[in-house]
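Practice problem: (S)-3-amino-2-methylpropionate transaminase
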Amino acid sequence: MKKKSLMKAQLPGPVGKLLMERRERHVPRGPFNTANTFVSSGRGAILTDVDGNRFIDFAGAIGSLNAGHCPDTVVEAVKEQLDRYIHPCFHVMMYEPYIELAEKLNQITPGNHHKKTLLLNSGAEAVENAIKIARKYTGRKAVISFERGFHGRTYMAMSLTSKVKPYKYEFGPFVGETYKMNYPYYYRKPEGMTEEEHDMMCIRNLETFFLSEVSAEETAAIIMEPVQGEGGFVVPSKLFVKKVKEICDKYGILFIADEVQTGFGRTGKMFASEHFDVIPDIITMSKSLAAGFPISAVTGRAEVMDAPGVGEIGGTFGGSPLGCVAALKVIEMMETDDLPKRAAFIGEKIMSVFHRWTETYDAAGDARGLGAMTALELVKDRSTKAPDKELTQRIIQACIQKGLVIMGAGLYGNVIRVLSPLVISEEELDEGLNILEAVMAELCS
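Answer key — structure tokens:
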């Protein structure tokens, strides 16, 4: 069996070092980099760097490449579109790919009601516009998000995000009328409390909030990741998500599902909301929508989406033709190749390994996930559950040096997360897990 990862040089290699010098001279230090090298090419679930090192990709551009690197049908569609027109701007002269993608998203997102879709550029921009639309429709100001939630780096999205460093530190003041509530974290729930009791405690706190802080009648929307991404791949129960939706329905509050990371097959269904039997009023999407082309979408109930007047939402590059044709091909791949089913298989395989590690290594505190959105939480002590951020970073960097690109997550920075492309082969998946296990054995024994 020919291995897919082949490390020729310690990172960064000779060419990588030269590029790193240029990066340090010309690019601000702010944008973080997980791997200390530069990509030369990518295909499927394999990356090759400028020094000829080959890597198995367990990061997938932070969940943007469910369809893999450079899928043939997407590349062909974009090349064909390039020969026709690149960007006339939808606000100047409309084009059919925008309409076609809106129709498709209206069809495949949860719910059979009449929907409409706005196309934009990024996940954060989708969140910004979802909040604008919710406030316009309801005439209310307050917006509730959840602790450990991540919704982006623009000011509204950053205000809704619940992690100070590195996202919010010294960037204030933040947008007003944004509030955060409890979200279940079963691994760290109070001792002796059942998961259902933990859920209901969070729900009671939300009801109390409406009495103590802001009335429900002044609340426009509650925005929730069905599975928390940057927060550590924390998976809530169906009970909790349904209870939140019931509260929204009770008070006329819009329920916004942030599916930027959880969408397009990642969790074993096309959208994670489907696992919880809830139908969002608005859903935000981006990342894996277009195999790496920058595009995002806000899809919602038609009457809600029509609340803003002409010219009140949009943007010059929103819904670019290249992004639209790429997205249509990605969705076709998802449906034709049944990538959500593939995600369920990948997740089962990874979780079986992760659960074994929780019995093998004291540092492996918790294994969790939904579909191919899987995580391993690392701790210094099993009884105290003290987070081990330092060990997590050592594991990540050791894996990269051995040919496996992987990333961390979590409020405490102590979670290893896997977001491999869903087109990854079994051979590549096994080899990636073998690399990770070798590093775990070396650093956790």
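Discussion: The mean pLDDT is 96. Students who identified this feature from the tokens alone can consider the problem solved.
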